């Protein structure tokens, strides 16, 4: 099976009692296969982060079906859903969500602590951190890194898991051109090795011919 992610007619609104309902996704459908690197381009507030969360099994849509690695995360128990995410989905969050009390090596290794590792993940973790130019900072906590450096640590953490699906929220948002290229090369390589990547961004420079566009929760090609 080559299909890694399928999103069918997904609608998501944020509802809070006493507040106006915000519809963030409207009838969105897309699919990603192994080897795909696809961009979703859209302005701030268009629903990009919401789309990533719904795609990755972190935010239940109101309507529609999400299938990740052949399974609908929202049809599973929360435990099985966590397992599906841990095995198959890597996130690079817009706010990174690094752990403040761990140094960057331990942050990158953190997801591996939950599972049984057949090989020692540390050498590869170090390799990834070095690749992103942070080899001399292994024992620094995230608070001592620049925002762009934290972003690269978050990407190293996601890549170490070798997920089938990588979901990256503005992965070059805080980077200069050279580091942006470094990150995009790593994502491209990941896709070439058989992964599927969705990058959501408002960076026009990243737009490719087969990008999706998201405007006001509506996805078009
Ligand atoms: N928890 C929430 N409660 C209410 N509204 C929300 C919530 N999260 C997001 N929204 C609204 O949903 C819409 C889509 O938000 P989302 O974060 O998906 O946009 P985005 O495209 O990622 O924006 P940005 O480029 O600024 O990160 C926005 O109008 C936002 O205000
Ligand atoms: Mg966002």
Features:
Rossmann fold, 221 residues, three-stranded antiparallel sheet, alpha/beta, binds adenosine-5'-triphosphate, binds magnesium ion, 29% helix, globular
Number of domains: 1
Q: For the report, how would you describe the main beta sheet?
A: 6 strands, mixed
CATH fold-level label: Rossmann fold
Strand arrangement in the largest pleated sheet: 5-6-7-3-8-9
Measured distance between first and last alpha carbons: 24 Å
Bound compounds, each kind once, are: adenosine-5'-triphosphate, magnesium ion
State the helicity in percent bands: 25-40%
The assigned structural class equals alpha/beta
Supply the CATH superfamily name: P-loop containing nucleotide triphosphate hydrolases
> So what's the overall shape?
globular
> Average pLDDT across residues?
91
Counting DSSP H or I runs of 4 or more residues, the number of helices is 6
User: Which CATH architecture would you pick?
Assistant: 3-Layer(aba) Sandwich
């Amino acid at each position: 099976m080559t299909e890694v992610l399928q999103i069918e007619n997904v609608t998501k609104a944020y509802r809070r009692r006493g507040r106006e309902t915000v519809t963030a996704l409207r009838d969105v459908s897309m699919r990603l296969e192994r080897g795909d690197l696809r961009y979703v381009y859209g302005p701030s507030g268009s629903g990009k982060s919401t789309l990533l969360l719904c795609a990755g099994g972190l935010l239940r849509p109101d309507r529609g079906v999400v299938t990740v690695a052949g399974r609908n995360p929202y049809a599973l128990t929360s435990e099985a859903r966590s397992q599906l995410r841990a095995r198959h989905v890597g996130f690079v969050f817009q706010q990174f969500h690094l752990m403040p009390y761990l140094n960057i090596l331990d942050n990158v290794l953190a997801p591996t602590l939950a599972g049984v590792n057949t090989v020692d993940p540390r050498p590869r973790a170090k390799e990834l951190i070095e690749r992103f130019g942070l080899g001399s900072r292994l024992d620094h906590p995230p608070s001592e890194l620049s925002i762009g450096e934290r972003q690269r640590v978050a990407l190293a953490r996601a890549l170490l898991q070798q997920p089938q699906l990588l979901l990256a929220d503005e992965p070059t948002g805080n980077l200069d051109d050279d580091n942006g290229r470094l990150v995009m090369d790593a994502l491209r390589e990941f896709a070439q090795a058989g992964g599927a990547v969705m990058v959501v961004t408002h960076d026009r420079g990243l737009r490719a011919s087969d990008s999706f566009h998201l405007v006001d929760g509506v996805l078009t090609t």
